[in-house]
Amino acid sequence: MFTSEKGIVEEWLSEFKTLPEASLPNYATNLKDKNSLVSSLYKVIQEPQSELLEPVCHQLFEFYRSGEKQLLQFTLQFLPELIWCYLAIVVSRNVHSSGCIEALLLGVYNLEIVDKHGHSKVLSFTIPSLSKPSVYHEPSSIGSMALTESALSQHGLSKVVYSGPHPQREMLTAQNRFEVLTFLLLCYNAALTYMPSVSLQSLCQICSRICVSGYPRQHVRKYKGISSRIPVSSGFMVQMLTGIYFAFYNGEWDLAQKALDDIIYRAQLELYPEPLLVANAIKASLPHGAMKSNKEGTRCIQVEITPTSSRISRNAVTSMSIRGHRWKRHEQPDNNNDTTELGILVIPEISVTNVAGERTGNGEKGRTLGEIDAQHIQGVQETATDPRTESKGLPEIRRQKSVRKMMEDGINSSGRVQF
């Protein structure tokens, strides 16, 4: 750590001690623009043996409990780096060096699990129903499932997930360590939209280092420092994925991609189903190319929304519409089909006559086969233009055919009787 950076941190420590309470909001507003101070504080946190680490942790905790929202967010941006430093110290079994960092993490945890009146918080989350539209889906695109979900939602069967109340912790042990750290990452993810780019970069880097430390992939990533495996829980990895998913669409594509691959690598080794499910879902939803997001613009997760459509179709299918469509189809002349069908009936009759060797007269030579066919087709089309006339003519034709058949049967039967 350079002398200039050390001087910036010392000035920051002394400035806050002499700051009157009335000027606290203005101080908090100007604090986020001090990039040199933020980078110097990161270097202090990364050096566990630094003499400035303890006063820095103490002042960050004072920021958090001051009640000023911007000061609280200023402390939260260092949370991923603090978690990494704490885990690295615990794995190296140098417990005495982690006292101030552990106290800061415990202080933030104990402040977050209670409300302003000192009562325990119970966090609730209602699982969204697929029958109701959201920015992620449209019920009409799901099909029959939407009807089932709609029927269930009308009976008030929406599922609510509760988290808490969480117990107060006086120290971090191997039993409650990841319970506390998972809750702290949950608090960090709740303020992701206010985190600067340097904090998102720190999140992606520490997620990658936690997952590959002590494994062969550590040599591939060329991470130096500790080489021991850091135990992680399934819930802790899911919270890491939440922050990484946000980093994908807010200017940190490359670091987020590397962290996602390392989390999948570790989840496969640990056989954790929840992180594998979330990580593979994120990976499948990513676009093919890296997204160039504006780091200074509005921070959000981009999703593709299906275009909304009206629930009731204007062209509803009814019996009248089907009947009208059928009449329209009959009214449209189809010359090609009629010519083909009539050609099948007429041409064999003429060809049979020609085969029999019958000669046509000289006066009949002018009437070619094409003229005869054309006249015949025209006559048929004229009789079939009116569908009502055609429908009335069909029973009459059937009646004539039946009478002719009865007469022929009668003649034949009478002939047989006479013989």
TrEMBL record:
UniProt-listed InterPro entries = Hyccin
The record's comment on protein family reads: Belongs to the Hyccin family.
| Top-level taxon | Eukaryota
This chain's protein is named Hyccin isoform X2
Arranged from A to Z, the UniProt key words for this protein are: Cell membrane, Cytoplasm, Membrane
Q: Entry's PANTHER family?
A: HYCCIN, HYCCIN RELATED
Does the entry feature the keyword Glycosyltransferase, yes or no? no
Q: Does the keyword Cytoplasm apply?
A: yes
Give the Pfam families listed for this entry: Hyccin (PF09790)
Q: Where in the cell is it found?
A: Cell membrane; Cytoplasm, Cytosol
Major localization class: membrane
Q: List the coiled-coil residues.
A: none
